[in-house]
Design goal:
mainly alpha; 4 helices; rod-shaped; Helix-turn-helix domain-containing protein
Amino acid sequence: MNEFDAIATVELLKNETTELRKPRYRRSRLDRYKAELISLKTGGATNAEIQRWLRKKHIKVDHRTVGRWIEKHVNGKVRSE
């Protein structure tokens, strides 16, 4: 009769969880206009104004998305790219 090995099962489940939680990077539609967006923001444009500029380029995003993208790329982590 087979014995249930809880410790081995938990270890397998934890390994699966680790694999499932790996970050997946998906390029943003805004990445294409990185230089322009940074220039607009440092030039004093608001997120809503940048949103309208993107809309003219046929990119529909919310101004909060623009704000998060700006925060990440201008003020935050990815500045050194």
